[in-house]
Write a structure and sequence with these properties.
Radius of gyration: 13 Å
Largest sheet: 2 strands, parallel
Oligomer: single chain
Distance between the termini: 50 Å
Number of domains: 1
Strand order of the largest sheet: 1-2
Number of strands: 2
Shape: flat
Order of helices and strands: EHHEH
Structural class: mainly alpha
Length: about 60
């Protein structure tokens, strides 16, 4: 029996929305955290996540 959850690739825009504790999309993050979803990423996807999160952080610091 496979105990690993469904494999998913999360679009960068969706990835950003699942991080907020009050987000209506938080359930996706929770399923990844519980192992119900297995997040699949490449080096390129991780770099994109990093780039977008850095931009969002920079924007927030200077508003």
């Amino acid at each position: 029996m496979n105990t690993i959850g469904a494999k998913v690739v999360i679009d960068t825009n969706v990835f950003i929305t699942i991080l907020g504790r009050q987000s209506p999309n938080r359930w996706i993050f929770d399923k990844i955290h519980k192992g119900e979803f297995q997040l699949c990423v490449s080096h390129e996807i991780l770099l994109e996540y990093e780039e977008i999160l850095s931009q969002k952080t920079f924007e927030k610091e200077f508003k």
